[in-house]
Structures are given as C-alpha cells and as structure tokens.
C-alpha cells in the first residue's frame, strides 16, 4: 500500500482559496531525493511530509526546488489533516518536530492556531537590486534570518505591485514580504510574499512571514492581537497573537483531495538508490 496523500487549501474557509499544500503521510523514512522529487511532482508552493514519532510527528517542508526551514500554511494543513482523519482527537494538541524546533497547534472554534517562533525583522539598508525590483514607495526595510520585510506607502501600491522576479531571485534570501496598512477596517494590515529564489514566484498565503509581520505591526499599532490579509490572487486571512518570543498564527483549512501514492513511486526510488550505490 502506498503513502496517503492529501491536498489542502490552508488559510481559507472554502475550497480553492488560500494556499494549497500537499500532505504526505510516511509510514517509514524516505530519502531526501525522493521527497524533493515528489514535491516537484506536486508543484505546489509546499509539500509536507509527516512521520509518526514517539512524541508527535516529524515534519519537513519542500518547495518544488528546495527544502525549507519553516512553513506556516503546510503546518496548518498538516494539523488539519491529523484531526480530520482521526490521527488526533479534536481536543488533542498537535506536536511537530521540525528544522525550526518543536511547533504546536490546537483547535479553537473552527480555527487552528499554531505556536511559532518570533522572527523579528531588524531595520536594514535595502540593496539596490531590491529597490529596483519593487519600484514602489518604501517606508521601511527590515531583514530577519529568512526574508526581507518591506513596508510600502499604501495598500493600493501593494496590490498594484509587479516585482521584477529575476532581480529578486538574485538576492541571498528566501523571499521578500511586502506589507502595508489595511485600507479596510476588517483587517489591520495586508501583505504579499515573493520567493523566486526557492521556486515560488508569489506565495498565496505565507504563515511563516507572519512571524515577522505580527511583531512588526503589533509594535506599530500598539496591539497584540491582529488580523492580516494576504492580498494574492487566491487571498487568505491570518489571525496573529504576539507574545514575547512566540507568535500564534491562526487560520482555517479545507481538504480538497485525498489520494494514495502508487507503488511505481517507490519502485522508482528504489531503482535510483540502487543505481547510486553502484
């Protein structure tokens, strides 16, 4: 029997919204090469791999081109599947061992909240390639260990932004998070996220980016609980609760596809492993 595979729309309360992720349940460890090739096959911004361990689940995230250290929407999708498919009881907390340490998630009133590390953006000087690639009025430039965080002058500028992805791809970072105050009282801030260096031109909804956006806007607006909207074509709502060293990132998720990988995928991996060993 093959591994179970799910397609989940994260940070959305309806199908075909938010950010899609593939979730693969492993019953045994698989090679890095196999996981990367499956992520390329899925061709979504992230494919997550779950392997049961004594204290929870080992969780790894792959874009179509690389493994990443932190991903919000695929973690949200993974937790959603654990509860929906009965791997966890509704009142149980999900625990994930990841490259960013232990992450946790729980359910509350139809939403899932994840406990993530704060990734504050330190004010910095923007490289000329970044300024040229965005070509919009910028009011703040910051950087954390993953991304640049850029505030632009308005939501109008943010929504109209058409960045030069070739220039952004040259920067030695994961991605660029662009944000602005929300023009609607429904949200506190809006954002978009571009990561061509890891194979993602524009990410529909980026949970991990809110590890920076949450603290940034909490300080700007003087409040610890915020609602953000990621203004991609698909769009998505992210609830944020900021603590001292952690940030709660909340969203909804919907399963749109459940499948099982065929035996051919395992045979291909085994043949490749034997070839490499020769």
List its salient traits.
Diaminopimelate Epimerase, Chain A, domain 1, 278 residues, alpha+beta, 2 domains, disordered C terminus
Task: Walk me through this protein's architecture.
The protein is built from 7 helices and 18 strands. The protein has helices spanning 32-42, 73-84, 128-134, 155-160, 165-169, 210-221, 263-277; strands at 4-10, 19-26, 46-53, 56-62, 67-68, 94-98, 101-108, 111-117, 122-123, 138-143, 147-152, 175-181, 189-195, 200-203, 225-230, 236-242, 246-251, 253-260. With 278 residues, the protein is of the alpha+beta class. Helices cover 24% and strands 40% of the residues. The chain has 2 domains: 4-112 and 253-277, Diaminopimelate Epimerase, Chain A, domain 1 (Roll), CATH 3.10.310.10; 122-242, Diaminopimelate Epimerase, Chain A, domain 1, CATH 3.10.310. It is globular. The protein has an 18-stranded mixed β-sheet that branches.
Summarize the structure.
With 278 residues, the protein is of the alpha+beta class. The chain has seven helices and 18 strands.
According to CATH, what is the class of the largest domain? Alpha Beta
Order of helices and strands: EEHEEEHEEEEHEEHHEEEHEEEEH
Q: CATH homologous superfamily of the largest domain? A: Diaminopimelate Epimerase, Chain A, domain 1
Beta-strand fraction estimate? 35-45%
Computed over alpha carbons, the radius of gyration is 19 Å
Number of domains: 2
The multimeric state of the shown protein is single chain
CATH fold assignment of the largest domain? Diaminopimelate Epimerase, Chain A, domain 1
Work out the number of β strands. 18
- Provide a count of the helices: 7
Taking the sheet with the most strands, its summary is: 18 strands, mixed
Regions with pLDDT < 50 over 5+ consecutive residues? 274-278
CATH architect. name of the largest domain? Roll
| Fraction in helix | 10-25%
What structural class do you assign from the helix and strand content?
alpha+beta
Mean pLDDT, to the nearest integer, reads 94
> End-to-end distance, in Å?
28 Å
User: Rough shape?
Assistant: globular
């Amino acid at each position: 029997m093959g591994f179970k595979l799910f397609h989940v729309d994260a940070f959305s309360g309806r199908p075909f919204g938010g950010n899609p992720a593939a979730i693969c349940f492993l019953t045994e460890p698989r090679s890095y090469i196999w996981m990367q090739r499956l992520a390329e096959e899925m061709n979504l911004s992230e494919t997550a791999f779950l392997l049961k361990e004594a204290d929870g689940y080992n969780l790894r995230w792959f874009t179509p081109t690389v493994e990443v250290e932190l991903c919000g929407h695929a973690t949200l999708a993974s937790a959603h599947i654990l509860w929906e498919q009965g791997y966890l009881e509704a009142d149980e907390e999900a625990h994930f061992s990841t490259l960013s340490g232990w992450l946790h998630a729980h359910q509350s009133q139809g939403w899932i909240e994840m406990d993530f590390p704060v990734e504050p953006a330190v004010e910095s000087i923007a490289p000329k390639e970044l300024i040229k690639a965005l070509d919009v009025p910028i009011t703040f430039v910051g950087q954390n260990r993953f991304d640049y965080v850029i505030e632009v002058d308005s939501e109008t500028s943010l929504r109209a932004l058409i960045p030069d992805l070739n220039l952004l791809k040259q920067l030695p970072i994961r991605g660029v998070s662009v944000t602005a105050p929300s023009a609607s009282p429904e949200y506190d801030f809006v954002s978009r996220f571009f990561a061509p260096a890891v194979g993602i031109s524009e990410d529909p909804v980026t949970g991990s980016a809110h590890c920076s956006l949450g603290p940034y806007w909490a300080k700007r607006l003087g409040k610890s609980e915020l609602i953000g909207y990621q203004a991609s074509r698909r769009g998505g709502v992210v609830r944020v609760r900021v603590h001292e060293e952690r940030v709660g990132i909340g969203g909804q998720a919907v399963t749109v596809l459940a499948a099982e990988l065929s035996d051919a995928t395992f045979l291909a991996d085994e043949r490749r492993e034997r070839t490499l060993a020769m």
